[in-house]
Fold this protein.
Amino acid sequence: MFWEADRECMNREELEQLQFERLQSTLNRIYSHVPFYRKKFDSLGILPEDIGSLADFSRLPFTAKEDLRESYPYGFFAVPLREVVRIHASSGTTGASTVVGYTRNDVRIWSNLTARILTMGGVTKDDVVQIAFGYGLFTGGFGLHYGAERIGASVIPASSGHTLRQIKIMMDFKTTALISTPSYATLVAETIREQGIPLAALSLKYGLFGAEPWSERTRREIQENLGIIATDNYGLSEIIGPGVSGECREQNGLHINEDHFLVEVVDPETLRPMPEGETGELVITSLTKEAFPMIRYRTRDLTSLLPGHCPCGRTLRRMARVRGRTDDMLIIKGVNVFPSQIESILFEIEGTEPHYQIVIDRKGGVDEVTVHVEVGETIFFDQMRRQRDMMEHIRKRLAQELGINIEVKLVERKTLARSEGKSQRVVDRRTL
Amino acid sequence: MLRIKNLEAGYGPLKVLRKVSLHIDPGEIVTVIGANGAGKTTLLKTVSGLLASRGGEILFEKKAIRKVPAERIVSLGCSLVPEGRQLFAPMTVRENLILGACVQYRRRRHEEVTEDMERVFGLFPRLKEREAQLAGTLSGGEQQMLAIGRALLSRPRMLLLDEPSMGLAPRMVREIFTHIVHLRKEFGLTILLVEQNARGALAIADRGYVLETGRMVLQGPSEELLSNKNVQRAYLGWSSEESA
């Protein structure tokens, strides 16, 4: 099922012409309307017309989160405020918030792009879609809401939180598709189990989850516990919100809406392009945004571009699910460690729950890291030996993978704090 | 059908087109809108080979035509309906049409010319009525029809139209635009339409490009351009307050 088959299955040559045309007009507009870019281009001695191909594109400057902060609130807008019909702000998970704007056309394109993502995940006009993302400055709720409406589905703007009420709505309104963060879906699944609600009482078929990294194992668990097909989708407010990329039912990576976004994956240190298939920082350029165009925006998200074709028929390139953030990168005992590396090790070990927390302390000038992992009751109440073996096993695997020693603590199910939004996976108590 | 990348053109020291890129898929009506002097006519002259370009790439049905002479481009299937019609005033309607068929004669397809002439008269019955009249005595609208008819006699697959609505009465403008939509349906033509009448052009086009001082600044489906405030202000003559 496609929402815009002519776009999603375009031949590459045509796509590249379209991307190039759109890049050219974006450059012409930002050069005359966004002082930041005009200054930056002038200082580099570049004119928009110097970019003669998609390959020249690497001569353009990057845009960093800090640049946006310095231009708070409206410095990056490429149209006067009276042409802006919507303002959102980034959640500011990792710092001050960033303000983004949309013209009427931007909202229209946004709806179309999230409609594509929802269609990829299975949603049709016959579905009842419950959106459990926050509605507000955060782009998640509204973005997917418009897409679902565009498709013609029946949309329930449930917003986030009130899990018991969400579940009651889900049962009573016969929700067929749940839209939320993966960690919230996990919480919903747990609550349903605790309440003793049988899966038969739910009508759920699909789940589209995004806004935070999650693992293949979490997907399997959500799919089993909710009886749904769960797909991943990706976006960020600086670029448009949800609608940048999403998985189709093949569940083998996220198709990027390349006719609207140009993507690169670069080494976060050297900023050189990474070879296909290798993990680096995702960099995105918007090709059609009117109010808030972005040139080579460093997302700080870690992913890779996947080789090969998808059996679904879409020609849009795929990216791997986001593995974490470059600024989640922890430097422990001088070694670069991504929480996602620890997560994938934990998740391959039998008996652990999808909840963990990494606690970092500094004692006597030495970093001490402890990973708290939830484990199932059977293990917890079993013999001490099995617990010890498991801890030892995890410790060894972590040391093997990361090259540093990390303490492991097993905790009972549901001891670590659950979140309704983004999970707090890392507690860094070091005072430097 | 037509693919242009980084096209550069100008007159003497004057740079008019600064790396213009655009594409048209078969069967599309695409419009390029822009103010006077933006480079619209230069764009069509360059594509049709009347003006030598200075750089870039033009592919017509995957064939590079940037350095191909104008008459050859016509015989490849791409015909221009020039700005201001450019008819031969002291010649009759019929004679003007026959001049358009010279590629067909060169192809030794005389019998098709008679057939095509009938199709053009079918499309524009008024030309039939005035078949023997001198082109210079026709009204503006009739002259535009004749200019289009003349281009059709080369049996093109693509038509480049330069400001067909220019200088016409509003009723005639509507009629010409209706004919253009017809041309796609009846003759299976792909159409590149350059216009100052942005509203009329966007109403019939599938997609549009906005050209400003030789640079493309916007492109997209017509309905998107129609709701773009900049386009509204600059080309549709609306103030942003009344446009909601």
In short: Confidence is low (pLDDT under 50) at residues 239-244 of chain B. The beta strands of chain B are 2-11, 14-24, 29-33, 55-60, 63-64, 78-81, 158-162, 190-195, 207-212, 215-221. The longest strand of chain B covers residues 14-24. The CA atoms of residues 9 and 53 of chain B lie 5 Å apart.
